[in-house]
Amino acid sequence: MSDFHLRDAQPGDLPAIQAIYAHHVVHGRASFEETPPSPDEMHLRFAEVRRKGMPYLVAVRGGEVVGYAYASSYRARTAYRYAVEDSIYLDHRHVGGGLGQALLAALIERCERGPWRQMVAVVACTAEGEGAGSLALHERKGFRTVGRLEAVGFKHGQWIDTVLMQRPLNAGAGTLPD
Taking the CA atoms of the chain, what radius of gyration do you get in angstroms? Predict the structure, then answer.
């Protein structure tokens, strides 16, 4: 039995979401941002995801938000409208214990309720193995690696690759959209 539960994110969760993300921006390489976005910017990003009808979920443990996941448009041009990109961030003090797996599974399930046909993951990876956990998580949830962009990011004095992963949602490309 898990000691956390998942629910839709609410505006009141944004201070915790911003703090989780800020830690990753400042200390990690999973995000290519180098300066944490302000609380106001996080509100704008949250509102944009919700405006598009895409899911934004939080994991809560003991009344505290300890992780979050959301789907966003993969790219802005209209031909990409059936593809979403997933984002998952965990409080660095709560890594492990199935939070990421539960969030990704719930995000996939929620996206399959919508019109989307493909989910893309863009995973930052370093030569030292940073990103391996995210790659393994996505593979367990049906993603396959479809490409690698080498040394496209530079952060904390190091070049960073991105691994592109993809999984179908619902019928995937097997049928035309409605």
Answer: 16
pTM tops 0.85: yes
Tell me how far apart the alpha carbons of residues 161 and 100 are, in angstroms, rounded to a whole number: 21
User: And the tokens for 168?
Assistant: 């179908």
Contact 50, 63 (CB under 8 A): no
Question: Using CA atoms, how far apart are residues 16 and 62, in angstroms rounded to an integer?
Answer: 13
User: Which tens digit of pLDDT belongs to each residue from 5-44?
Assistant: 999 999 999 999 999 999 999 999 999 999 999 999 999 9
Tokens of 56: 């934004």
Rounded distance, CA 62 to CA 97, Å? 14
Q: What whole-number distance in Å separates Cα of residue 36 and Cα of residue 49?
A: 19
